[in-house]
């Protein structure tokens, strides 16, 4: 069998073979982020996307069969960008808690520059529930792996698992909603430091002399 | 001025005056939670709500003008139920961190019994963004007040503010999504204890001998 099973292909199933094709696909996805972010899935249209992208309608159908398909591809694309934004700020030799802080800083910066991401991922819960779930399960899985690394290095306590990762993810998502999307009244660095202090020492008052 | 300002009235502006009226309104809101939770806002219908409630169509219009209006009233109602679910588990003399743990336990129990709440509140971001924002701002505000109480009692550290409240709320919401709505593979008590341990001591490994 040399014919790939379409059901196993990626959301954006037609991969461009030329540099020009890759640029067109990129333009379409960037335009889709604006179109879906501003208008929502139901109001968004394929012609709205191609107009914003400055491409012909035919180019759209070279890569996507429908509005649903580019929406799924966009969620996959944004999910990858979130992963990269968190990763870009990481250096390999950072202590485990600084890794979490750097990842949150990167995410908050990304969310400020791409405020539409919240609306798109959130609407995905209704348009394509499987992709919504996949996005968060993947993100939690990455956090859980980082925590396990911190425990192996002797920096984090034993027994950290999936639920700790979900707790951190929820903290980060809600801090992003409040301090990156709704308002920028605090600096990204202050918010990341505040979240980091929770992971470092919790909220309890420490006996004096104990930092 | 004895005439109330209509802009200050509750979303469900026609308040029932009799016990029977209160029961009908309650039935309509409970039916709306199922209808919107199962079908989503766009697919949900007023006749679907009255059929589930076992009330006449006229009863619906006694209390609500439209599908939008009962949706807003429902979000307000659910927001109040979340508040009550967290509050019911509280005793007035609990230490501050046990208050947070009890509030999360109550919320997780409520979310397991009313899984539709996530879909309804999340869809509210698109149907009625102001109510969506209000729900989370109110919730964060309550958490912030509880934290301030803990600091006053000398149990929590100084300087806890709005962002700490948003961090806790995000943690709770995502733990609820994963462990109350998507799966019940861990007990409510285990998840609440795990979240509590983050607030109590963070994730860092403590020097041995220091609990």
TrEMBL record, chains A, B:
Keywords for the protein's UniProt record, in alphabetical order: DNA-binding, Transcription, Transcription regulation
Name the UniProt record assigns to this protein: TetR/AcrR family transcriptional regulator
Every copy of the HTH tetR-type domain together lies at 22-82
DNA-binding region range list: 45-64
Q: Which SUPFAM superfamilies match?
A: Homeodomain-like (SSF46689), Tetracyclin repressor-like, C-terminal domain (SSF48498)
């Amino acid at each position: 069998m040399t014919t790939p099973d379409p059901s196993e292909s990626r959301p954006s199933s037609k991969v461009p073979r030329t540099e020009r094709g890759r640029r067109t696909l990129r333009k379409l996805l960037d335009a889709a982020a604006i179109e879906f972010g501003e208008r929502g899935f139901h109001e968004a249209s394929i012609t709205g996307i191609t107009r914003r992208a400055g491409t012909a309608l035919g180019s759209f159908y070279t890569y996507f069969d429908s509005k649903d398909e580019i929406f799924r591809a966009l969620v996959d694309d944004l999910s990858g960008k979130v992963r990269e934004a968190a990763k870009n700020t990481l250096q390999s030799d950072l202590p485990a808690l600084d890794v979490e802080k750097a990842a949150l800083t990167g995410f908050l910066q990304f969310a400020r520059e791409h405020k539409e991401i919240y609306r798109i991922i959130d609407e995905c819960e209704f348009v394509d529930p499987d992709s919504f779930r996949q996005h968060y399960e993947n993100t939690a899985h990455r956090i859980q792996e980082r925590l396990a690394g911190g425990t192996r290095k002797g920096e984090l306590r034993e027994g950290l698992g999936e639920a700790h990762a979900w707790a951190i993810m929820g903290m980060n998502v809600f801090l992003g909603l409040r301090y990156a999307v709704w308002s920028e009244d605090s600096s990204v660095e202050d918010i990341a430091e505040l979240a980091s202090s929770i992971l470092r020492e919790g909220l309890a008052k420490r006996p004096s002399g104990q930092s």
